[in-house]
Write a structure and sequence with these properties.
4 domains; single chain; 8-stranded mixed barrel; Beta-Lactamase; Alpha-Beta Plaits; alpha/beta; about 700 residues
């Protein structure tokens, strides 16, 4: 758990932050709630007051509207005015009343052209045009045009605000489309008394009339005919929310103080815990970046060290990364156990620490894999050689003398910024060193990447070829050693890619590494079986990869394929190499037994170039042995080649296993093998790999010769 302490430190910090944030959020929400309630209560009361003021104005206008309508739409009034009695009628019915009438202070009868017929202000004659100007004439014209509806608006008269209602004088029973009606207007002054009545009725305390809006007060405009304000109703806000807030302010302050004390305590506790966790985190970081067994840097520590050094480019000597893998470490573990293996790793780590002055950091990045960081101008080859020399000295562990070697791959920084890329390059060089035979040092070069890219491209081509069935079988004859008659054929996979032949020694291992071998193997078996149907008297030999044989579904897939193709299992011979007997003998035995039960025969291929034993030949019950070509070539050399060959064939004969010899190219080779007891020959002397059509021709010629 190398990250446990950093995680705990972050957790303490996170918890402290969460508590602070929650406390701040709760405090903020509380403050927001109080503030919102305060302002909402104030706003709601202000809104109520504004609606009340609007209602007061509307009510006042409505009273004037009803008053003017009751007096203007009047049959007797209309008759008197239109019959030349306007002066007397206006004065006796309205002018005299205006002196002390509560509904209006003045009355005016105006002609449709705006001329003053008869007007009185508090019982005294006056000229409304002189008092109210052109705006009054516009209202008269509008009332005349809209004679069915009164026009009610506010006017300014000096310092006074006057509500004026105008309507055409017209009969009650007659149509109202006569545009020659005179216009009757009533005038009501908005006095302080009127404002006081409105304040009492609509709960608008301290309501006043003002000529301009006061930003400290609530205001409602009194608009004229053109929508321009001629004055305002103004009154102070009651702010009930603010008044309540002032009452509870001491309690709010006390809550804020308590919250501040709590937050201060949380911060102090969090800082103390964070310091403690930081100390633990530093110790955990050391553990996270170092190998517990050897005390060296581990992979994480190596990456961090490389990242730091690569960031100092230009301010330090050149940097080279060496990767080292021990040769022969697994046998030490197998022979003496992991405890001795661990002791060996510790001794190797100690030896690497002082292997060279320019090796500034050493890391153990795997089981038996180490890394050395060289910072200095020395030749990396010399350092690699010195490391290999150090490791050649035997190690003494509990009285045991243990020898191990090593393989080294190294790469220089070469403008690399990413430590992972530097590690990858050194790892590629190390892998190449292992491929080349171990116990050596290899420098990274671009060719390694190019080879990797080539393999990757070839793998893509192989995948496409498998999908398109581009890999086809050729067939090489298997002839009787005595008569020379063709008794069978071996299917050999051939691939022609972009006009070039790719050998099976290249694409078969590639198919095994890329996971394509199962599919490719079944494809080759299917194509071979389909072609071999034309040669019912011949056996068909097909090579099987060890990976195929270790697949639990292999036996079932083969039997299903033969059933679909209606191919006799007794004609099929599957050739396997002895490697499968070493890697997974149990699974191989199960697959072989299942297929042999169906009649399929098995041949052990390339016998003589590996480690197959007599016990393995007996255990797996092979039906045929194929001698490796290297034993056949030994026939033409001096020495014991022929003796070894004959001994091998005699061994097979003693076990009752017939023998096929591969790679027969000369008559002498054929004669020696025939005399030694080999019953079947294969090679260029018998026939090269050929197409199904050519095989058919060879069979036909053999039949004619017979």
């Amino acid at each position: 758990m190398p990250q446990a302490q950093p995680i705990k430190t972050r957790s303490v910090f996170a918890i402290t932050c969460v508590v602070l944030v929650l406390a701040a959020v709760i405090g903020g929400l509380g403050a927001h709630v109080v503030s919102t309630m305060r302002h909402s209560a104030d706003a709601m009361d202000d809104e109520r007051a504004l609606r009340a003021a609007q209602s007061a104005i509307s009510s006042m206008k409505l009273r004037m509207n009803n008053t003017i309508r009751d007096n203007a739409v009047w049959d007797e009034g209309y008759d008197a005015i239109t019959n030349g009695q306007a002066q007397e009628w206006v004065y006796s019915n309205w002018g005299k009343t205006s002196e002390d009438y509560p509904l209006y202070e003045a009355v005016a009868l105006t002609g449709v052209d705006g001329s003053n017929i008869s007007s009185f202000w508090k019982g005294q004659k006056f000229d409304p045009r002189a008092s109210f100007g052109q705006l009054f004439l516009d209202q008269v014209a509008k009332a005349s045009a809209e004679n069915a509806n009164p026009v009610v608006t506010f006017f300014r008269r000096g310092d006074e605000i006057v509500l004026v209602a105008s309507q055409a004088v017209q009969p009650f029973e007659q149509p109202t489309d006569d545009r020659d009606y005179s216009v009757l207007s009533f005038f009501k002054v908005l006095s302080a008394q009127v404002a006081g009545s409105m304040a009492t009725e609509y709960q608008l305390d301290d309501l006043i009339l003002s000529q301009a809006a006061d930003t400290r007060l609530l205001n409602v405009a009194l608009d004229d005919l053109r929508g321009r304000p001629v004055g305002y109703l103004s009154w102070p806000t009651k702010s009930p929310g603010t008044k309540v807030f002032e009452t509870v302010r001491p309690y709010v302050i006390a809550c804020i103080a308590l919250l501040s004390i709590f937050l201060t305590a949380v911060i102090a506790a969090g800082r103390a815990e964070a310091r403690r966790m930081k100390r633990l985190a530093e110790a955990a970081r050391l553990q996270a970046t170092h190998d517990n067994l050897s005390g060296l840097l581990n992979r994480m520590g190596l990456i961090e060290s490389l990242k730091h050094l690569l960031g100092q480019r230009g301010h330090r000597p050149p940097l080279v990364l060496h990767l080292l893998d021990l040769d022969g470490f697994k046998p030490v573990n197998d022979a003496w156990g992991h405890a001795v293996g661990d002791m060996l790793l510790v001794l190797v780590a100690d030896a690497l620490r002082g292997c060279h002055a320019e090796v500034t950091a050493v890391a153990r990045i795997g089981g038996d894999e180490f890394a050395l960081v060289q910072v200095g101008p020395a030749d990396p080859v010399d350092i690699a050689r010195s490391v290999l020399a150090v490791l050649r000295h035997p190690f003494q562990i509990d009285g045991r003398t243990i020898e191990v070697g090593a393989t080294i791959g190294f790469a220089d920084e070469d403008a690399i910024q990413d430590p992972h890329e530097l590690l990858r390059r050194a790892d590629m060089a190390l892998y190449q060193g292992k491929e080349d035979g171990r116990g050596r040092h290899v420098a990274y070069s671009r060719d390694l990447d190019l080879e990797r890219e080539r393999i990757s491209e070839l793998e893509s081509d192989l995948r496409r070829a498998v999908e398109r069935n581009e890999i086809r079988p050729l067939f090489q004859p298997l002839a009787c050693a005595v008569t020379g008659q063709v008794k069978g054929v071996e299917a050999l996979a051939r691939w022609r890619s972009d006009g070039d032949n790719v050998g099976p020694d290249v694409f078969i291992p590639l198919a095994e590494r890329s996971g394509l071998i199962d599919r490719l193997g079944l494809q080759m078996l299917r194509l071979s079986v389909q072609a071999a149907k034309a040669w019912p008297d011949l056996s068909l030999s097909v090579n099987v990869s060890p990976i195929q044989l270790c697949n639990p579904s292999f036996a079932g897939d083969v039997l299903n394929l033969l059933a679909v193709e209606s191919f006799d299992p007794k004609r099929l011979v599957l050739e396997i190499t002895e490697g499968v007997l070493m890697s997974n003998p149990d699974q191989a035995k199960r697959a072989i037994d299942a297929l042999k039960a169906a009649g399929i025969r098995f041949a052990l291929d390339d016998f003589g170039c590996g480690y197959a034993s007599i016990g393995a030949l007996r255990q797996f019950g092979f039906d045929r042995m194929k001698i490796d070509r290297s034993l056949v070539l030994a026939v033409d050399s001096d020495g014991s080649g022929i003796g070894v060959l004959k001994a091998t064939i005699s061994l097979a004969a003693a076990l009752g296993i017939p023998v096929t010899a591969e790679g027969i190219e000369t008559g002498r080779q054929a004669d020696v093998l025939r005399e030694a007891g080999c019953d079947q020959l294969q090679g260029y002397l018998v026939g090269r790999p050929m197409s199904p059509e050519d095989i058919s021709k060879v069979i036909a010629l053999g039949d004619e010769a017979a």
